[in-house]
Structure formats: C-alpha cells, structure tokens
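Self-study notes.
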Amino acid sequence: MGNLVALIPLVIFLAVALIISFVARRRSAGEGGFVKEYFIGNRTLGGFVLAMTTIATYGSVSSFVGGPGQAWMVGWGWVYMAVVQVTALVLLYGIVGKKLALVARKLDAVTVIDIVRARYGSNALANISAIIVVLFFAATMVAQFVGGAKLFEAVTGYSYLVGLVLFGAAVILFTTIGGFRGVAFTDALCGIIMLVGIFVLAGGILVAGGGYENIMDTIKANHPAMLEPFSGGSMPAGLYFTQWLLVGILTFVLPQSMVRCMGFKDTKALHGAMITGTVIIGLMMIGVTSLGVLSAGVLTGSLADYGASVDNIIPQAIAQTLPAWLAGVAIIGPIAASISTVSSLLIASSSAIIKDVYLHSCEQRGKQPSERGIARGSQLVTLVVGVIVFALAVVPPDVIWKINMFAFGGLETAFFWVMVCGLFWRRAGKLGALLSMAGGTVAYCACMAVGFKAFGLHQIVIGIVVAGALMVVGSLIEKRSAVEQKAVDAVFFPE
C-alpha cells in the first residue's frame, strides 16, 4: 500500500507546474508567430529564468540518483570528478552564447539545426543532425522517466507504473501546452525545487548519521579508500580525464543547452545567467554528489542489500532518513530534474521534426502551411514523441546514468566540431562537417557497442578525435567558391 502523505507534495508540485505552463502559454499567445514563440520563447528570457532553465536541463535525474549512487560506492573521488560541472555554464555562455545569439538573430533562426544548415549550406547535414538529436534525446528521455518512476516507487510505496503515469502524463501535457516558454518557466520552478530537495535530504542524512563527524568516522572505519582522491584505484586518472570531458568541458555543445543561448533577451540577461547559474550549478552538483558519499555513513550494507543497483541508493537514503511528508518533499528534487530534462528534450525533438525537417521541406516545395496547422502539428508531434518515450520506459532498463552518459557522448561527438568550427573557423566546410558528424558518431557508437577503448579511456575520446580529424581533412580538401564564402562571412565572420 502506498504512502499518501509522501505522495501529496509531489501532486501539488505537478499541479503548480501545469498551471505555470498553461499561464505562460496563454500570456504569450500571438507574440512573434507560433513557431518562434513555441520553439524559442520569442527570445525574451531574462537572466534568472535563463540560468535556471539551463541548469534544470543539464541537471538530469542521473545527476540526483545515478551520480550520487556512484559516489556512495566510490567515495570523494567521484565528487572531485563532479567539480568540473561548475564550468558548464561559463563555457556555454562564454564561448558560444553571445555569438550564437547574434547569428540566430541575423538568420531569424529558431533551432540549432537552423544554424547548422545556414553555416554549411547542406540539407543532408541538417537532416542527419535532426535524426541524431531525436534518437539520442529519446534515449535520454527514457532514462529520465525510468529514474523518476523508480524513485517514486521507492519513496512513496506506490508502483513504478503509477509513478510513470503520474509524472509522465504531467510532463508531456505541460510541454505540449506550454512550448519553450512554458518549459523555461517550469524549469525555473524545477531548479528551485531541486535545491530545496538537496537541503532537505542533507538534513535527513546528517541527523540519521549522528552528524558529519560521526558519518565520516563510519566511512573511515568501513571504507577508508573512499576518503582518497583515487579511491583505492576506483578513480584512476584516465577516468577523471574522460569524465571531465563528458560531463564538463564538452557539454556546452549539447543542442538542448545551445538553444537556450538563442532565447535570451539581451546581453545583460546572458551575463546575469552566467554568474547566477555558475553559483547555483556548483552548489547543486557538488552538493548532491557529496550527499551520495555521506549516505555511506547511513546505508552501511553492501550494494546487494539495496537491490544491486547504485540507482537505488538515493531513494533508499530518502526513505530511511526522512519522515514521510519530508520524503515527499525531498523526492520532488530528483523528479523535478527528470521532468525538466524531459520537457526540454521533448520540445527540442519536436522542433527538429517540425521546424528543421517538415517546414523546411514545405519551403523547398513552395508550400506555406497555415499558422493553425503548424500549431496543431507541433503540439501533436510533441505529444506523440512523449507517448513513444513513455511507452519505452514501461519496461525499465538498468543503470540510468550509463544511458544518460551514452547520449551525452553521442551528442557531444556529433556537434562539438561542427558547432565550434562553424562559429570560429572560416575554413570549415560542408564536407568536413558531414564527415565529422556522421563518421565521429558512427565511430563512437561502434566502440560503445563492442566495448572498445583506447588506453582504457571512455569512448568519447575516440569519437571526438575521429570527428575532429574528419572535420579538418574534409574542410581542407573541399573547394568552395568565393560567392559561398562571402555569404558565410557576412553572417558568421563579419569584419
């Protein structure tokens, strides 16, 4: 039998998120046309909302469940690895943010793929980009649904399927209704709730463990290697290096993050988001991962005692250290992380299908769908993609953080050189971009499938190196006319 007291806070949160999404959509109706409003919020996000929607999208359920679960097993080394995530927003807003926004406004671009198509003049590249976005986003969304539903089951006592239906239906509805602006405002709410959940759980763990010193003494007595930077060999230098690439340095090219750079109001908002967001993401990511380590002072059994999966550690910590009503508050944080990530990826997947494939195809054929038809089609696609992902999550896969990291690596491999070279290297060309995106992604996925690693490093290294080499070789051998180069320079490299 489920615990109704633990369920009530979550139901209230979901109801508030739905209301915010509905109000945001109603207030923005008619502003700037449906496509621009639904997929990019008509470029009106302020600094705080911009920061919180980016953080909430970046901080998925694996950041609150799988990552801390690994920290419970590995120790402080996993926290030191997580520190690199503090750089995420500085790199995003500082490297690509301003230029991406300027280019997007010149082109009146609504999606990252709009930028890719305009920079390289290739419909094939744009279509490959859309396929990659939808496939990897789908994998990530499945992981978010699974993580949120497992957490719901462990804390409330209601079944996995009940949790999946409850917040799965809510997130699909408010994304379908609210569009980009609705997602951004609900993301801001989710970000605040994530912080609240971290503080609530921290209090529960410290009280249950008899205080910080007592917890650390327990960890030292049971698992002294957890206190070492390399965790007795569990955190080798190579793992640090590849994880810093995977969850830190390369994350600024994730399409779901870059599109936020196209939606802010002005430079003041961008700078404010960079400062505010860096402080909050540091507090959030370092804090929640540290809680994973501290939970080892409370959950002192073996992994087998907790279902043989690190994904069960934080749900168990919540259930065992907090009274029912506070547990209900604490689970909102990780579930909010799941919801915010799914909603952002869902709207981005919809934009890839409608804006980047369908509407561009209509434009090439000289057809102009009605505004009402575009609106209905966009919302229908959002709904259908959400339902498909929901259906895939009904039978849950194991180890959600690995699924999330696989998707991160695939998107980073596909877009890193295409975007960085496209924005900052005049010589980057269509052939190089096509080879880089297709060849790098295939190399990454193939190595992941067979388990091949170079020097014991994560396959992201192979993907990035192959993609970079193909970008350089393809661009240098391609011949481009002066007219084509002049058109690119006018938008991307003005004097």
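Second protein, same conventions, sequence then structure:
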Amino acid sequence: MAESALVVQLGVLGAYLLVALAVGVAAYRLTGSDAEDYYLAGRSIGTVVLLFTTFATLLSAFTFFGGPTLAYNAGPEWILVMGVMDGLLFAILWYAIGYRQWLIGRVEGYVTLGEMLGDRFGSRRLRALVAGVSLFWLFPYVMLQQMGAGEAIVGLTGGAVPYWAGAAFITLFMIGYVVLAGLRGVAWTDTIQGVFMLGIVWVAVGWVLTSAGGFGEVSTALARNRPEFLSLGGGLYSPQWMIAQAVTIAFGVTMFPQINQRFFVAKEARVLKRSFTLWPVLVLLLFVPAFLLGTWAAGLGVAVPEGANVIPVLLNAYTPAWFAALVIAGAMAAMMSSSDSMLLSGSSYLTRDLYRPFVNPDADDEREAWLGRIGVAAFATGTFVASLFRPGTLVEIGSTAFGGYAQLALPVMVALYWPETTRRGMLAGIGGSQLFYLAHVFVPPFTVGGVTVLGSTYLTWDFALYGMVLSLLLTVGVSLVTASDADERTERFAVGSGAD
C-alpha cells in the first residue's frame, strides 16, 4: 500500500476518534459523582438516544465484520437470522422483559439485573451468580471487539499496521473514554455513531455497485462464481441451525449487561414503547447492506487474506482509500459503541453486585463510581491480552457468548411474571443450565454405548436450545417443590412491576 494512502487512512481514523473523545469530555463535565448518574445517566434518556444507543451498542465486530465475512464464505442467509428473525424477536423481548424491568426499576431504583433479582429473592448468592455469569460471558465478547479492531486495521492497511497494534490502540482508547464519559457520554456518542454507521454503509453499497458496473453486473458475477448463494438453503447452514442461532441471539441479547441495563434508563414509558417499535426497521436498514457487501465480494472474486475481514479488503478494491478508511471508522465506531457500553455495565456488575454486598456494604456512591472506573481498566486489559491468542473466529466467539447469556433469559422471565418463583428455583435454573452449557463448550464430545455425549447438536438442534429448556424446567420445577421459600419480597416486587 502507498505511504500516502496509509497516512490518509490513519488520519481519517484518528480524526474520528478525536471527535468521539471530545463528546466524552463534554459528557464528563455534566456527569455527577454518584453511581446512578455514571451508570444510568440519571434515568433521563429519551427516545432517539435510547433507540440509537441500543442500536449502536449491539452493532459490534460480530455484526460489522463477522457477519459480512460469514456471508462471503457461506452465503447471505444470515440476513434472515440477524436482520429479520432477531430484529423481530428482540423487539418482542424488549417489551416482554425490558418494559417490565423498567417499571420495577423506576420504583425500586435498581441499577443491575443481579441487584433486582437478589433483592426480589433476598439472596446475595443469587445476586452474585447473576453477576458472575454475566461477567464471565462478557469477557469473550469484549475480547471479540478488540480482535475485530485488530483485524480491521490489518485489512485496511494491507498489514502495514500489525494486528496487535490495532487491538492495543482501541483498548487504550476505550479505557480512557469510558473512565471519562459514563453512560451519558456513551449514549451521546452511540447516537452519533449509529447515525453515522447507518448512512455510511449505504453509501458504501452504492459506491461498490457503481465501481463494479452496476447491480446487473454484480448479480451476473455472483451467479457465475457462487451460484449456490442465489437460492435459499444454498449456503452451508441448515434451517435448524439458523433458527437456533436466531433464538439464542435474540434471547441472549436481552441478558447482555449493556443491553439489559438500558431497560432501566428510559425517561418515561412511551420512550421504551417507541424504541422497541422502531427497532426492527433500524436492524434491517443496517444488516441488509452489510451482509450484501460480503456476498457481493464473493461473487466479484475478492481475495481475503488470512486473518483479515472482507469489508476493508472489498472497499480497498472498489473505493478510494479515504472512503475505505471512513467506512472502517464506522465499523470501529460499532466496536467502540459496543465495548464502551460493555465495560461500563461490567464495572457496575462488579461494584454493585460483588463489591458492595461482599466486601464493603457501606461504600458511598462516589467510591463505587471510582472503583468502577478501575474495574474498566483491569477488565479491558485482561481481554486485550486474551485477544492476542485469537481463540476462534469472530462468529464463533460471538455465537458462544450469545448462547451463554441466553441461558439466563427464561429464568428471568419466570421471575418477572410468576410470583410463585422461589430462590432455590432461580439458583437451580440459572446454575444448572450454565453447567450444561459450559460442559458443551469446554468438554470435547465423547461416545458412550454408541451415543454421542456433549455433541454440538441433538436431533439436529443446537445444544444451546436444550440448555434454555433445561433452565425453564429447573426454575419452574424446583420452585413448585420449594414453594414455601417465597417471602414477602415477592409481593413487593409484584407491586413494583405493576406501577404505571
């Protein structure tokens, strides 16, 4: 790559990051010293900001790089998974879980999911279990963003900037930004980044189509080079696999700390209702063009080097260097808007659900907020070190984390809607399903009497779905057996959730 093009690309990236940092500094000047303002922006978020901060937070490296690269390798069917199934499923779950959490959080002042459930059942163990599970699965997903940043810069610069340097740079930026900004700054920049990403990816589609000779020429090339991509089911994945992915991703997203906390921040009920109504539209507007770019690259014969992602390579081939850098800046925005929210939410789980209950119950809000900032730096440093080992593809890591979070969803729904749920039922449902899922992730499959144990599928369906069913059965079954464990907190919780 020419030195002048490299300078232009790095300059565009640097300018974008400086703008984001300036927004963070402005937010810092308005953020109070108390933990609720730092973590939830004083529960004052309006419709546009809530919609776009949720939108930008979910548009991670998994979406912007992993998805198009998957489409490049296996066809565009994942548009159905991410763009249609998950767009609709998550909107429904946003109402079923998110709206009820908001009603409860407004009355009780909760900041985290673990705090809400721990208080509901009077159990520090449950609070710690929810926080521990959430932080465990957050680790690989933050690592995924750092891997995506490193791979993006490798692809954009043709290897002139090494993988580790890209990952290290984005890590340092994230730490500085989150420590400064808190949720108010994160939400503001997420809104800017969401609008920017949405616009730039459509401009990229138009530019690639024009440079490649138009839609007809691109379609002809795709039919000639990858004809299997033009028919549903022509790719590498079965309908069962895609449905399982759609379900686990949608349910997993609702339990992501950075998404679940956004269920608490809306200024009023109509803000939430407008947001989840508009959600499927925004998802389609971004996912369709991103996945089409990956599919078209396969048809056009774009060669993607090992360790790189398809989007920067495609843009380098069909658009000017400055525009390719601008789109990658948008992708970096996607990764940062996910990572900053993850780190912020993760630090709240650490301080609210582990430090306060078990270490220092008398800690004041200011001390908690500063401890959270230290936690951000430590967590991000740990994930950066892990990212250097690259323990899988972006899609593999993201899919595993989604499945882990999905195991939490049904016990939480039961607790929100069924007053007879007990402490032991929740511990059994969450703990049992997590053990089942972890065994399938980390223990190699083996055969007993001709039957495969701990395989990736059972009767062609992904093991993550069976874990979700197990979580439901254990939560309900153990609650029925231990119904006498329900205490007065059940009634208070139910009253809070019915507020309007």
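Instructor comment on the second fold: The chain has one domain: 1-386.
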